[in-house]
Write a structure and sequence with these properties.
The protein is α+β, with helices and mostly antiparallel strands. It has helices at about 15-20, 55-70, 75-80, and strands at about 5-10, 25-30, 35-40.
C-alpha cells in the first residue's frame, strides 16, 4: 500500500496565499500520524497535547510545505527546517 501525503491551501490559490505572506488555512492529509487536519494559523500559535498526539508531525509538515513553496525539497532543505523523514 502506497501512502499518499497531501498538503493544500484551501479557499485560495497558492499564489494568492504566498503574496499575502500569511497563510489563512493549512490542511494536512496523510503525513506521519496526521490523518486529516485543517487549521487556521495566527501570528502566535501554541501547540498543546499529550505525547504522540502529533505536535511535532504538524511542525514537520509545515517545514515540508515551506521547503516545497521555496522550490527545494531535498535533505539539506528539510533538515534546515527541522523535518525528520
Amino acid at each position: 500500500m502506497v501512502k499518499k501525503t497531501e498538503f493544500s491551501l484551501p479557499h485560495a490559490t497558492q499564489n494568492e496565499e504566498i503574496q499575502m505572506n500569511h497563510l489563512k488555512k493549512i490542511r494536512i492529509q496523510g503525513f506521519k500520524s496526521i490523518v486529516d487536519q485543517e487549521f487556521e494559523p495566527g501570528q502566535v500559535n501554541v501547540l498543546i497535547g499529550a505525547n504522540g498526539s502529533g505536535k511535532t508531525a504538524l511542525l514537520e509538515a509545515i517545514g515540508l510545505l515551506s521547503a516545497a513553496m521555496n522550490g527545494r525539497v531535498d535533505n539539506n532543505a528539510l533538515q534546515g527546517r527541522g523535518v525528520r523523514l
